[in-house]
Amino acid sequence: MTSPPDERLRVMPWWLVLVGLLLAVALGWWVLDWLLGEADRATQPDTRATLRVDAIRTGLTVVAGTGGGLALLLAARRQWISERAQRHQEAVAAQDQTHRERVQAHTEAVAEAAQRQQERQAAAAEHDAAERRLTELYTRAVELLGSDNAAVRLGGLHALERLGQDNPGQRPTIVAVLCAYLRMPGANDSRETEVRRTAQRVLTRHLRADGDHFWPGVSLDLTGARLDGFDAAGCTLVDADLTGAVCTGTTRFTGADVRGRLSLGATFDELLLDGVTGDAEIVLDGADSTGTSFDRADLGGTLSCRGATFARVTFRGTTFHQPATFDTARFTDSATFRDAVFLGGLSMEHVVFGGYAGFRQARFADLALFRFAEFDGEAWFEQARFESKASFGRARFHGPVTFDGATFARRPGFDQARATTTASHVWPDRTQVHPVDDDWLLLTDQ
What we know:
Blueprint: H1 14-40, H2 45-145, H3 150-166, H4 171-183, H5 190-205, E1 220-221, E2 226-228, E3 236-241, E4 246-252, E5 257-263, E6 267-272, E7 281-283, E8 288-293, E9 298-299, E10 303-304, E11 309-314, E12 319-320, E13 324-325, E14 330-336, E15 341-342, E16 346-347, E17 352-353, E18 356-358, E19 363-364, E20 368-369, E21 374-375, E22 379-380, E23 385-386, E24 390-391, E25 396-397, E26 401-402, E27 407-408, E28 417-420, E29 425-426, E30 432-435, E31 440-444
Parallel strand pairs: 1-3, 2-4, 3-5, 4-6, 5-7, 6-8, 7-10, 8-11, 9-12, 10-13, 11-14, 12-15, 13-16, 14-17, 14-18, 15-19, 16-20, 17-21, 18-22, 19-23, 20-24, 21-25, 22-26, 23-27, 25-28, 26-29
Antiparallel strand pairs: 28-31, 30-31
Helix pairs in contact: 1-2, 2-3, 3-5, 4-5
């Protein structure tokens, strides 16, 4: 450690002291010689002797004075050196303290970094151990699920369920495994049916938000699955896909809260969606159902039933907040839309009503299209409210039709529609009816 240049101590060389002494002696000698020379010029011997004595005394005084000055100078230098030494010591002590503090701070930083490194290593080791344990448990459960023994497969289902309950991060994977099991073909016997029903219950048990074991945010991919008595009543569903599934027994979504997209283009013995709520897009394109019920549902998203086949379907008191599309659908037995509210548009173009079609007291707040529709049985629009344009262009009415008590904000369109002559009809006011032949009546808008 070096001191600043102005604080460095320099020792006086010995030759400087010798030079000072020689200068003092030379000065005294010169003064003495000069005074003695002046004394020798005196003419009186007594005066000359006195002057010589005074000259010697003066020379010695000069020498003594010069020596005293040198001594005083040396004393002043000692004091200066002492002060410089003290300042130097103080500066060195301060620098030493600063250095010790830096060393201490560095030591503490190194120790803290080492501690953090140890903690990270411990956390990584703990994480690796937990992951290995999860992997082992997961692998073992999947192996059980692949057993030929139905009881062992049941054990594998419950093992997967417990693993998902204890480890939220594994839930999407476990749900995907259960869905994959239901998509796989299996033996058509009572034991396999019970295993599949258990897998279904494991899935739906954790999709009820009011339960103690709710797994939020998981989606169901059951495309092409074989389901028996699938019960998702009261569940919260996000992106559930049953496209191409075969659903025997009664499939329930009663009171479910549906989000994202609910795809139900499957085959159903009976499908119940009573009281369904949520903003999901519900798609039943190509579905085939013997009995379907949407009673009192509150559908916040769109509904699409293009090309679907329904034997019996009811939408009593259902509210459609977005457009509903039934184009090319077939209702082979009956279709009831009593008290339904269509806040979005309704499209039923090329729809075939094989039996009863009831729209009693329905409300159509937007465009209602029934163009090219086939009504093979009774068509009832009693007290229906059409608050926008309604079109029945080229529709075919093979049975009785009534619009008794129906109200229209705009004149309905019946351009080229036809009705049978063998039944009685009640048409909206100003509808023009013209006989075509013995079997058909032609309806026009003029």
